[in-house]
């Protein structure tokens, strides 16, 4: 298996298909008010950047971030998802690393995210990658179903 990570369009068929699967999975785990799912059209309209993980030509993972200015300037990570067959292979970490590299390239030094507490794999990924828990940010409210994280990014030379 040779997986490569590359930029992709938020509205591309592969990205959209993966996000639909992610939405279906999360919809069964959390009440509607606790699902903070940016629609593809909203991400596409935002100052967003997306990557895909590809196994030859099939997209098997995705992730994005959007530049935010509501609570200082930061990047909010959105929509990281890896197909179940490909989980546990490090693809999620590679997607996260690619997003962080682009954040640094754009001069963004803070990455934040909200994720659900019922999915342990993403929680472990973010903690291993150096993200630290914090309180709600931006428009989020405290929610027993949510975990909020932040990481300070060093700029690349």
How would you describe the overall organization of this protein?
This protein is of the alpha+beta class and about 160 residues long. The protein has a single domain, classed as Aminopeptidase (3-Layer(aba) Sandwich), CATH 3.40.630. About 30% of the residues lie in helices and about 30% in strands. The chain has four helices and seven strands, in the order E-H-H-E-E-E-H-E-H-E-E. The longest helix has 15 residues, at about 15-25.
- When the domains are counted, the total is 1
Main beta-sheet strand count, sense and barrel state: 7 strands, mixed
Beta percentage is 25-35%
The third-level CATH topology is Aminopeptidase
Enumerate the spans where pLDDT stays under 50 for 5 or more consecutive residues.
none
Helix and strand pattern: EHHEEEHEHEE
From the coordinates shown, what is the CATH architecture? 3-Layer(aba) Sandwich
Distance between the termini: 32 Å
Rg calc: 15 Å
Given helix and strand content, the structural type is alpha+beta
CATH fourth-tier homologous superfamily: Gcn5-related N-acetyltransferase (GNAT)
CATH class: Alpha Beta
The shape, in one word, is globular
Helical amount = 25-40%
pLDDT averaged residue by residue: 92
How many DSSP H or I helices? Answer: 4
Number of E strands: 7
Key descriptive features of the protein:
single chain; 157 residues; alpha+beta; Aminopeptidase; seven-stranded mixed β-sheet; 7 strands; 29% helix
List the helices and strands and how they pair.
Layout: E1 3-8, H1 13-27, H2 40-45, E2 48-55, E3 58-68, E4 74-82, H3 91-105, E5 110-116, H4 120-128, E6 132-134, E7 146-152
Parallel strand pairs: 4-5
Antiparallel strand pairs: 1-2, 2-3, 3-4, 5-7, 6-7
